TrEMBL record:
PANTHER family to which the protein is assigned, alphabetical: RING-CLEAVING DIOXYGENASE MHQE-RELATED (PTHR36110:SF2)
Residues covered by the VOC domain: 7-131, 152-269
Keyword list, A-Z: Dioxygenase, Oxidoreductase
Identification of the protein by name: Ring-cleaving dioxygenase
Length: 316
């Protein structure tokens, strides 16, 4: 039986200013900042996680804010658009909200669905789609009530420098099922109900360059640590080169670059973001893994203060 992922676990991108990032994803989009930590490989940089009320797998978008980072260019070997999912009937709410907050957007259509396309403060390409599937978020913030809130990921539109190689990984390694092709886009579906619709540009896209406003990697779900080990073996069996298993505190991870140039991660669903903070306090304190605790004072001194705040437009 083919090994199948439930879908996207998280997506991680580069941005520039940490407070601008919080204002956009919490303030504009109404997501919860569920974890404030650091890039374990570059501890002078925040790693911020936003998602539903607990940052469930399939809902978490994460960021490395590099204040002096170079501007990236979206292109082949990257996630082209990150797709957020809202409840059926909520698209008009989001049209009105983006208009109110002066976030320019366009309507885009593919596979019979309407998407609202827009960019964040750093030019990261985003879109919103409404569907019935997916558990409703229980989080409300600012001007976003829970019944209109982003549920999590609808999926992503991938740009590949070698689409046939990417297709082989999506189908043969990750177990996604091809749904059809339309207007130069191939659609795949995973086994879950969040982060489950993956679209791929059918033609090669010229290589992008990493930097602010681009996605660093897209992560896929493994059910548990035992399943994660099977995923690593599965990736190797298909001639790819996964990293050793890496402890990311809130999940374990392996990474590999598929033939179309996109950096893929496979991450475990457990233990999750309540590992070191209770539900009511998620995202409020800077959390460090134990090996960085002796350096807390130095790390905190180098990080700019951030706060989750309601936008002034939502207080009027």
């Amino acid at each position: 039986m083919k090994h199948q992922t439930a879908g996207i676990h998280h997506i991680t991108a580069f941005v520039r200013n940490a407070q601008d990032n919080v204002d956009f994803y919490a303030g504009v989009l109404g997501l919860r900042l569920v974890k404030k930590t650091i890039n374990f490989d570059e501890p002078e940089v925040y790693h911020l996680y936003f998602g539903n009320e607990i940052g469930s797998p399939g809902t978490a978008i994460t960021f490395f804010p590099w204040q002096h980072g170079r501007k990236g260019r979206v292109g082949g070997g990257q996630v082209g658009y990150t797709t957020f999912l809202v409840p059926s009937g909520a698209l008009s709410f989001w049209e009105n909200r983006l208009t109110k907050l002066n976030v320019p957007f366009q309507h885009h259509h593919r596979f019979g669905e309407t998407f609202l396309r827009f960019e964040d403060t750093d030019g990261l390409q985003l879109e919103i789609v409404a569907r019935e599937e997916g558990v409703l978020s229980k989080w409300s913030f600012g001007g976003v009530p829970a019944d209109m809130a982003i549920k999590g990921f609808g999926g992503a539109l991938l740009y590949s420098i070698a689409p046939e190689k990417t297709i082989r990984v999506l189908e043969d390694v990750l177990g996604l099922e091809r749904q059809g092709e339309e207007d130069g886009v191939i659609r795949f579906r995973s086994a879950g109900d969040l982060g489950n619709i993956i679209d791929l540009a059918a033609n090669p896209v010229p290589s992008g360059s990493g930097g602010t406003g681009t996605v660093h990697h897209i992560a896929w779900r493994a059910k548990d640590h035992e399943d994660h080990q099977r995923w690593r073996e599965n990736v190797r069996a298909h001639g790819l080169s996964p990293t050793p298993i890496v402890d990311r505190q809130y999940f374990n991870a392996i990474y590999f670059r598929e033939g179309g140039g996109i950096l893929f991660e496979i991450a475990t669903d457990p233990p999750g973001f309540e590992l070191d903070e209770p539900f009511d306090a998620l995202g409020q304190e800077l959390k460090l893994p134990e090996w960085f605790e002796p350096h807390r004072a130095l790390i905190e001194k180098g990080l700019s203060p951030i706060e989750v705040r309601v936008l002034k437009e939502d207080m009027e």
